[in-house]
């Protein structure tokens, strides 16, 4: 009898071991499915109800009241203070557009140690969370554009893609897919990890302290004027300029390069956001350092990169070849391209189509490197 009981418990043990193996296999299969799901398979579940994160919502509301008051105080402040706030907005904006976006998120060019240091400082002044999180969200935005796995899915409307996503609980797809984004390059970058580690302290010094202190000690501005103009008004207005790229530049404009995606070309946004409004081109060819087909026109950021390249401070600038752009315009554009819109598919060299890597819809395109100059 004892032998029989022992045999039974041995069988049970084997059974539970088998169960464990089966469970493991199922889990692995689920994880693989999760990893291999394509953006179009994720889509947008319009029945999904978002939970509001009230502390964030109330925080943004208060910040907006303070910013409105800051705009009112511009009239009472020294005109240098307004000029200073504008200068801080544009210069620190480059930390976002040139630095976090084109250099770090898309590796559209490489920067010397000095440039990377300046970028981290300017990005901290802009105060749009640490660069590590910024880049993770942005790479995820490109990989899963306008699906539930995109942190600011524009299919959920203007408000959500503009600011609503920052005051809502993340969709489960954003959380699970966020873990699959490769950030190993950032993890090996001392400056990026230092900023991540000490972000709150650095924010207080660079985003609040220095912008407020300069007008006070520079031209005897009052603390109140400096606080409201150089921090609250400047900070919130700059955030809106960035957010417009996620909202308006995904909703209102033309699609000369790819009509099958949400991002659009929007000249006004390009002027406001230092050249980042040519968003249909940018999503079609994300690794192009110009983030537009036509270089420096309405793109302060591209002009700055060109100057830095001339000085040898940035190098290995990536630029998509004209024939690759043309092929995409003819194949997928909405007909609004000023040069290639009337061209029929027959006029495109078939070799272009065969050799064009953009048709596999990957974010990393094969690009001709130019400006291969100096340093590092
Ligand atoms: Zn976008
Ligand atoms: Zn981008």
TrEMBL record:
* InterPro entries per UniProt: Acyl-CoA_DS, FA_desaturase_dom
What is the topology of this protein in the membrane according to its UniProt annotation? Multi-pass membrane protein
What are the recorded GO MF terms, alphabetically? iron ion binding; stearoyl-CoA 9-desaturase activity
CDD domains per the record? Delta9-FADS-like (cd03505)
| Membrane-spanning ranges | 52-72, 113-135, 201-219
Q: Does the keyword Cytoplasm apply?
A: no
Its required cofactor(s), as named, are: Fe(2+)
Principal location: membrane
A GO cellular-component term linked to this record: endoplasmic reticulum membrane
Domain spans labelled Fatty acid desaturase: 78-287
Query: What GO biological process, any one, is recorded here?
Result: unsaturated fatty acid biosynthetic process
UniProt-annotated location(s) = Membrane
Homology family: Belongs to the fatty acid desaturase type 1 family.
Q: What is known of its domains?
A: The histidine box domains are involved in binding the catalytic metal ions.
Its name, as the record gives it, is Fatty acid desaturase domain-containing protein
**Organism source for this protein?**
Zophobas morio
